[in-house]
Automatic annotation (TrEMBL):
Coiled coil: none annotated. Consists of three domains, a large central CORE domain and two small peripheral domains, NMPbind and LID, which undergo movements during catalysis. The LID domain closes over the site of phosphoryl transfer upon ATP binding. Assembling and dissambling the active center during each catalytic cycle provides an effective means to prevent ATP hydrolysis. Some bacteria have evolved a zinc-coordinating structure that stabilizes the LID domain. Zn(2+) binds at C136, C139, C156, C159. Residues 8-148 form the AAA+ ATPase domain. It is found in: Cytoplasm. NCBIfam families: adk. This is Adenylate kinase. One of its GO terms (molecular function) is AMP kinase activity. Gene3D superfamilies: P-loop containing nucleotide triphosphate hydrolases. Keywords: ATP-binding, Cytoplasm, Kinase, Metal-binding, Nucleotide biosynthesis, Nucleotide-binding, Transferase, Zinc. Residues 39-68 are annotated as: NMP. AMP binds at S40, R45, G66, L67, V68, G92, F93, P94, R95, Q99, R166, R177.
Length: 226
């Protein structure tokens, strides 16, 4: 339990249903604790925007609230990990058993540790949160019209970028995303619980409280990476 965490890498998976706050918590703490931040959803949206082949294949799945095929997402995410070292926060990946196994074999290959922060909330709470969510087009910072508004309407506090609402934050698509979470992703919690690498926290608490709990879990046990 000593200094091995800084030398070898650690991947912290932020797991949970859409809207639970994975991205918000992870981006805030990544900046503060100097972890890299990788979001499968952001990578996919960037591909859609740039019109890459991956983006074209992913688009219809994303628009309907379904999952992008495992192989496409896995290849994309693992490739983005290749050049990184130290500590990495992963948001939105893995979401299926196949993705989890691919990630674990990748981590074994690099001799890296896995830690999972599992955020939970009930569906009605998530629905309310998602339909009011707004996001910075430039830096990806996340706001909420009521709970976490930007200082200046329509403008990012961090970088001054324009804020927008995601296409898939419409109520009908949100309902589908929640259903997909329960069917395809939630079973992974059992997989991680058995490995003893998962910390479960309520995502319904005030943000500062969740940040403090995750911070304590990361620093308290293992120290922040270099
Ligand atoms: P959220 O967690 O709020 O639903 P994300 O930005 O993580 O949003 O994902 C948006 C969409 O991108 C998902 O609905 C899905 O279509 C696709 N996606 C993201 N990550 C994955 C993944 N690991 N596996 C499959 N599809 C994914
Ligand atoms: Zn911004």
């Amino acid at each position: 339990m000593k200094s091995d965490s800084a030398a070898s890498g650690v991947v912290v998976v932020f797991f949970g249903p859409p809207g639970v706050g994975k991205g918000t918590v992870a981006t805030r703490l990544a900046e503060e604790l100097k972890y890299h931040f990788i979001s499968s959803g952001d990578l996919l949206r960037a591909n859609v925007k740039e019109g890459t082949e991956l983006g074209r294949e992913a688009r219809s799945h994303m628009d309907s609230g379904g999952l992008v095929p495992d192989q496409l997402v896995t290849r994309m995410v693992l490739k983005s990990l290749d050049s990184l070292s130290g500590g990495i926060f992963l948001d939105g990946f893995p979401r299926t058993q196949v993705q989890a196994e691919e990630l674990e074999s990748y981590l074994r290959g690099r001799g890296w540790r896995l830690q999972v922060i599992d955020l939970t909330a009930d569906d009605r709470f998530l629905m309310k949160r998602l339909v009011e969510r707004i996001i910075c087009r430039s830096c990806g910072a996340i706001y909420h019209r009521t709970n976490l508004p930007p200082r200046v309407e329509g403008t990012c506090d961090h970088c001054g970028g324009a804020l927008y609402q995601r296409d898939d934050d419409r109520p009908d698509v949100v309902a589908r995303r929640l259903e997909v979470y329960h069917q395809q992703s939630a079973p992974l919690r059992e997989h991680y619980r058995r490995q003893g690498v998962m910390l479960t926290l309520s995502g319904e608490k005030p943000l500062e409280e969740t940040l403090a709990a995750v911070r304590a879990a990361l620093i308290g046990r293992n120290g922040a990476p270099e």
